[in-house]
Amino acid sequence: MSQSHETSQSQETLSNLLQETRRFEPPAELAASANVKAGTYEEAARDRLAYWAGQAERLSWSRPWDEVLDWTDPPFAKWFVGGELNAAYNCVDRHVEAGRGAKVAYHWEGEPGDTRTLTYADLRREVNKAANALLELGVRKGDRVAIYLPMIPELPISMLACARIGATHSVVFGGFSADALRTRIDDAQARLVITADGGYRRGKASALKPTVDAAVADTPSVEHVLVVRRTGEEVAETERDVWWQDVVERQSTEHTPEPMDAEHPLYILYTSGTTGKPKGILHTTGGYLTQVASTHHSVFDLKPETDVYWCSADIGWVTGHSYIVYGPLANGATSVMYEGTPDTPHKGRWWELIEKYKVTIFYTAPTAIRTFMKWGDDIPAQHDLSSLRVLGSVGEPINPEAYVWYREHIGGGRCPVVDTWWQTETGAIMVSPLPGVTAGKPGAAMRPLPGIGADVVDDEANPVPNGGGGFLVLTEPWPSMLRTIWGDDERYVKTYWSRFDGLYFAGDGAKKDEDGDIWLLGRVDDVMLVSGHNISTTEVESALVAHPKVAEAAVVGATDPLTTQAIVAFVIPRGDAGGDVEGEDFLRELREHVARTLGPIAKPRQIMIVPELPKTRSGKIMRRLLRDVAENRGIGDVTTLADSTVMDLIAEKLPGTKSEG
Ligand code: ATP
Ligand code: MG
Asked: Among 35, 290, 540, 611, which has the minimal tally of Cβ within 10 Å of its Cβ?
């Protein structure tokens, strides 16, 4: 960059307040047998494209590529140009052909306790039947299929059936409303919708079909709705509807996969909508599958012969696409898949599943970890979790206290925790420790993975020095990068590539510590400007969560006549906090605690004790709604909010909350 350096020196881009000195070395045994060792960083740095070409060899290609990367028309990338492969063949058939047909692909567990085991041979049969059914229903290569299903085996089967025939899937999270579903169907012009009568959530059948009926009443592109019978509840039927049990079950179990161009559109997925209107992110085939397979192997140290892997995300989010479906299956892993909620029928359900299936690798989100902290240590303690060897986290910055709790109470103090930073847009993990290499720091995503270029820059795109904070950017194109926003190339360029010349702007704040390791500091939109200092939400929240009586915290900057913005915190006390957690003494104690931990500049002006926080359906805190509360405005767009009653609960608390000094 050739811009002047002056302005960036007058004011730091983002403060670095939190000091964290705990370190966790990789277990010796894991380090010795790790899939990826330290040397891989240098190897990849020497020749990045050769490194990715090597990773692409994990897949079976029908036609080799002519060129690894075509970046002549940035930011529109083409990876593995001229190569051809079929994603479903790579995820299913080739494992069967290699003699691993009897290996379990999914141990599926329904919320009511019913189970299904799908081996790779079973999966091939089911995917073939579904692919034949799609063809019979008129779906062709290049068409879009919307999938609105609960977490049942037909969900990955449907995705793979689409991939097999070259239809582009658009999975819509089963918790979304008819409106949200309709706009996504319309945006992609989907020809078919795959759904179910319903699924099980919180101990009861929860209907999906009525939502689809309402959505497709107004979507001319949809020709058929293919309905899986899951709950058996009665549903209204229309002309367009066909039952999975009728149409799919009678199909041939044979289907020959057609090789697709490496850049063939594999899927569209809408971002989770934490900051605003969701964007239809487009992923293609060869580069995407290469990077999800590669990172699932390296970041989780997956040993497909012996590991039992479980990612607790919903397949409706990118984490589920990449690390329940495409990554694990491309690697021939055995996974657990669970339909329901963590507290049904009891709060130890997840730990019971880990014990039952002897899960060795577990991947979940900070929001879940903080919920378990709130519920109490005694719940996981009732289960044998000794099979676990690697733990992962994704979705939000993980507060150091939550990381340490996860490591101790779930990982028994022996499992490395990998904090994986990535986005729907990146398709795969970008910044993360490697469990056999990295000495973990609680709360740090650490370093870009081999073959990935990431940095933290100031306003003028200059890399910040160690100890400094700024904007997280990606400096090189990567194989699983989004190719565009569906139907809107201009928005793609504007959103991600115009803030800094030649760099991908992720929208997240980050800092480099004294060793140059990367810590995520929350979204740039959420950064608070307090008396000339840009303060990250994450650091203040982490300081609050480090107080023994605090389970969860969210902070926002509210307009303040003296300091530009003032910090307002929303706090959920731990279940076992005891004492008067609503009283002035406790609030003063918390404010002092933050000031002691981070310095007086970070002391909240006001703390509100609340029963819940507003979260997206993927479990992320929606700070912009809390900002509306803190600034006494009407609440903004809540369509991506998981539970709309939460904002009422918080508003109810308002009259009683007192601000101090
Ligand atoms: P939208 O872009 O529509 O607001 P979203 O950003 O919540 O939605 P996702 O793509 O699911 O949708 O989430 C990616 C974001 O999640 C990242 O940009 C980052 O803010 C956050 N994130 C994910 N993993 C981590 C992590 N390990 N540490 C810190 N933040 C993370
Ligand atoms: Mg985002």
From this structure: 611
